[in-house]
Amino acid sequence: MRSLLLVFISLYVVVGSEGIYSLHGLLNTETSSRSNLILFTLSVPGLQVEGPSGPLQVQLGDSVLLPCSVRTPVPLEELEVEWRRSDSETLVLLFQDGEERGEEPEFRNRAHFFTEEISRGNFSLFLTDVTPADAGTYRCSVHTEKESGDTTALISVVRLVVSGGARAVSAGLGEDVILSCSVDSSEQIEEVVWKTDQDIIVLQYKDGEVLPDSSHERYRGRAEFFPAEIHKGNFSLRLKEVRTEDKGDFMCEVHTSLLSASTTVLLEDLGLSLLHVLILLLCIIAALLALSLSSFMCLKMRG
């Protein structure tokens, strides 16, 4: 008796933490009782590739580590790992045939694997001298003869550059002097504080407000910002009526939620101000006139 029987079986088996294996069996009984064919297909999940838990924020010019790893090491002879920019598909770095390769000029000599860690399943990328163009999403793809997997990492480049004017500025006693501090930041500025080399607070800006009461008594009423310039990143300090004890280094420290940077200005040559020089000259001239008049009177009395 001829019969046609088609049975479709789907079996799902959970294997530890490695994932779910799907086993499909197809039993096909031919018209001939002597011909039974059983076909099985095994669908295996991809590699479990682990990456960073969130965006990677890095300062311009610094280095950044882009994590990429698997829990179970993969034989090197069948391993291929490639890092690419997701937006442009630019190849950043490749590990193939047991060697590290990278030909793109923009990443040459800046992108590296930790070669000794690859055999342990660590394929993290180390990128140095970060530039604004490096911001974006990167994909780490891991391939073997039988399976593959990938993960992504997002680089967010932040910027905080603090610069001053001349390394040293001069002022006469009693004069006013400006100590320069310019801030270029991609993040919101949370705090700017001017301090002396003795860690004495000269003036502080915090959470959008100038805090004159934060000044040490030595500088209270003598130190001020330029309010109209703050939104431009200009945190230069005007120090009024310079005194002898003001001589030394002044530091402008800038803080965001992620970064900190500073610049230093030296206040030196606290000599006599122009006014003091003029007063001194007048005193000398008056003394000479008095001496001349006295000599004239003496000579006249003798005559």
Automatic annotation (TrEMBL):
Keyword vocabulary terms for this entry: Cell membrane, Disulfide bond, Glycoprotein, Immunoglobulin domain, Membrane, Receptor, Signal, Transmembrane, Transmembrane helix
Keyword Cell membrane in record: yes
Chain ranges of the Ig-like domain: 45-156, 174-268
Subcellular localization(s) per the UniProt record: Cell membrane
Identification of the protein by name: Ig-like domain-containing protein
Gene3D superfamilies named in the record: Immunoglobulins
Organism field: Denticeps clupeoides (denticle herring)
Membrane-spanning residues: 274-299
GO process terms (BP): cell surface receptor signaling pathway; cellular response to lipopolysaccharide; immune response; negative regulation of T cell proliferation; positive regulation of T cell proliferation; T cell costimulation
CC annotations in GO: external side of plasma membrane
Membrane topology type: Single-pass type I membrane protein
Pfam families: V-set (PF07686)
Region forming the signal peptide: 1-19
Entry keyword Ribosomal protein: no
PANTHER family: BUTYROPHILIN SUBFAMILY 2 MEMBER A2-LIKE-RELATED, T-LYMPHOCYTE ACTIVATION ANTIGEN
